[in-house]
Amino acid sequence: MPTTRAAEKAAATKGDDSKSEDKVTGSKHETKHAKSPQAKRLKKNDDEKQQTIEDTIPSSTREASESKEEPKPSAGEKNTAQDQIEKTDAAEKPGARQNVVPSSILEKGIIYFFFRGRVGIDEPSDVNEIQRSFMILRPLGKDAELGEGTIRDTGNIRLIAVPKKVFPRSGRDRWIAFVEKSDSSLKTIKEKFLSSSDYETKTVGTRHSPAATPAAEGVFAITTTGRESHLVYMITLPSKLGEVQTELGLREKGSFIISTRNPQYHAPRGVAFSKGADYPKEVLDEFRGLRWIPSHPHHLDYVNTQFLLIGESSGIKKATEPQKEDEKEGKEKPEDELETLEDEDAHRMEVLKDDDSRAIFADLGVLAKGYPELKTTFE
């Protein structure tokens, strides 16, 4: 069983983490990333405007012209994968961390990073050939810990689309992401997102949307510092970040400031979304007439929720700052709690994996055969 990584904390560099604004911008990332020896065991952006209105329309609104049948595995393959997928009862252990999780952690869980190539491009050779990137958020009980196996499908998965293709790394990088699916099941994620599809258009006929490619898997937490909300993550797979992860703007440990947009106001200039989230009155009342408010986990439970992602060059330091009340009550520091979850996830995925891709797909209840492998280099 892996040991805790609390002793591996690195000094973070102070960055320019600006507050939320209505303006959405982007910048090129060419950051190199290397892990410490202790961590080896665990694991262009462009400034162009969104290419077409079609690229900003959630893929769930497109109807496939014909259903795609998943390739049938051999008997031995099927038994091995099914054994992995059926280990759903042991992984999440609710209540195992009662009274130790800090109040600043609003939600924690498993995060998967995927990207999809542009129409007709099954294997992108660089970020310019990516249509958009995605995050899959799979919340766990706040007081839960992880054992071995996959996680029970409770239908609470969220699919977050990032039309800018890469993830922001500094306060100068700020752009919109949106909830493409919420309260989703593994079956829906498999059929409507992971798989490739062909669909008809009036102008060019049949178009091919490639299958999604996994880029990383890890753990996440949505935290609050009182004035801001943050989405913090630690990557478990791959054990060493490569060219793909770096070009996508991912770090071994990273975070974003996240702010939810009030759908009662017009969308930011240059952002083409058909409509905002259909919030009930109690959620709309939270805005108090403001255009943006710190994101809360329940905001992400509504399809078409639009929120601002702002990079944090200081890493996770600001996002995991301990609160005085939690310290008085003897609760874990937010970073320590997240590292504990990462240790548990690292062991869980190590037990599951044949290779990184097979582990990720098995964890999502999907046979890896027929889907792209996790990539660390563009070829």
Automatic annotation (TrEMBL):
It comes from the Eukaryota. Residues 14-29, 63-72, 84-95, 318-334 have a biased composition (Basic and acidic residues). Residues 30-43 have a biased composition (Basic residues). Residues 53-62 have a biased composition (Polar residues). Residues 335-344 have a biased composition (Acidic residues). Residues 1-13 have a biased composition (Low complexity). Residues 1-97, 316-350 are annotated as: Disordered. This is BTB domain transcription factor. It comes from Xylaria multiplex.
